[in-house]
Amino acid sequence: xxxxxPDERLTVGEVADELGVSEKxxxxxxxxxxxxxxxxxxxxxxxxRGDLDAFxxxxxxxxxxxxx
Length: 68
Prior knowledge:
Oligomer: single chain
CATH topology: Multidrug-efflux Transporter Regulator, Chain: A, Domain 2
Shape: globular
Number of strands: 3
CATH class: Mainly Alpha
CATH architecture: Orthogonal Bundle
């Protein structure tokens, strides 16, 4: 059963697919604290849909501000 909405859990691979980047890049974003992630089990890292949406929006806002 999948959960949708801001609490939906996404794997690192799913986040990478949505962002169009590698899993390595997603893990680097998490390590640097740019993307919030949760470890629910050993070697299982998840990102909440709401946190991914906030990350994407912050990037969009930063890129618009930089273009001014």
